[in-house]
Amino acid sequence: MIGGVWCNIIKLLDKVSLDNKPLKQYIVGKVGSGELIQFWFDPWLSIGPLFLRFPALFQPEKKKDCKIVDRIGFVGGNSRFRWQWKRNLSVGQEIDELIELSSLLINIDLNDNTDKWAWLGSVDGQFSVGLVKSLLTKNLGFQGLYIPSRCKWIPRKCNIFIRRLGMDKLATMDALKKRNIDNGDQTCVLCGEEDESVVHLFTSCYMASSLWSIISSWCKIPSIMAFSVKDLLETHENIGLKGRKKEVIQGIIRIGCWCIWKARNEARFNNIPANLAGIIRELKSVGLFWLNSRSKDLNVSWREWCSFVNM
Ligand SMILES: [Zn+2]
């Protein structure tokens, strides 16, 4: 039952983090009638609160504190979504997120039972302080997932994107197919050679591997060797870097991923062909702007940035 001791535990856990994630997310709502659990803010799909997973879609939500029953209803025995947006959704990330969220919700059945809470930190679902303590010392991500660390000098929207990438939550063609959403041609729009997946797009695609190779020589670092998204996002930790240069490389690789995804969306949804020169131009200009606007004691010139000196 919600309320009483659970309510206090949830409020308390909201202030404690494990790997940048509120410990609250180890608690998951078991949906009954959907009248008590908040649709966006409460963790009820074992993937954490939906407003964190679907930040673009959360923006146009009309009633941010709505309950599950406000968004999933029944008509003639069939569940049906009851979205309420402040405006029309825009093509791109908002629609991507709507498709992904809808596929997650499709099998949710509301019933007459009262909503309940379960603890995810143990196999048997039983909560204990000792278990929380051991989780805090284990340094494991939520449910063992890889959760990329936050980069200090890139904006929040970019960090959120990177977290979704690291947790394999992007709506790539293979991810949609796994959820039985047939979205047409599966071929990667950047190279046209292989099926699109997260690993392909960000590591093995011709466009990505060329980008990482150019970044290696631009930033004068060893070749970026990545066979997984985790390898890629942890590069800065594994090539002998220290201090500011390490942080700058961390951000540049993250912005590189951001630019690849933007180019992919432009190509897929707006038929604008991706080109490597355009991706590099955007990476360098956005990167310098974010670096200078978010680092108080740093003012890197375009010339310094392009030759990557004084980092
Ligand atoms: Zn490709």
Describe what is shown at a glance.
The chain is mainly alpha-helical.
List its traits.
globular, 45% helix, 6% strand, 311 residues, two-stranded antiparallel sheet, 2 domains, mainly alpha, 14 helices
Are there runs of 5+ residues with pLDDT below 50, and where? 138-142
SSE order, one letter for each helix or strand: HEEEHHHEEHEHHHHHHHHH
Number of spatially distinct domains: 2
Class per helix and strand makeup: mainly alpha
Distance separating the two termini: 54 Å
Rg calc: 21 Å
The helix count comes to 14
Largest sheet: 2 strands, antiparallel
Bound molecules: zinc ion
Fold and architecture overview:
By secondary structure, the chain is mostly helical. It has 2 domains: 4-142, no CATH class; 156-307, no CATH class. 45% of the residues lie in helices and 6% in strands. It has helices spanning 4-13, 50-53, 55-58, 68-71, 93-105, 129-138, 156-166, 173-178, 198-204, 206-219, 229-233, 243-270, 276-294, 302-307; strands at 17-18, 21-22, 27-30, 72-75, 78-81, 116-119. Strands 1-2 form a two-stranded antiparallel sheet. Strands 3-6 form a two-stranded antiparallel ribbon. Strand 1 (17-18) and strand 2 (21-22) form a beta hairpin. Helix 10 packs antiparallel against helix 12 (243-270) and helix 12 (243-270) crosses helix 13. The radius of gyration is 21 Å and the shape is globular. The model is unreliable at 138-142 (pLDDT under 50). Bound molecules: zinc ion. The site of zinc ion has 7 residues, from loops.
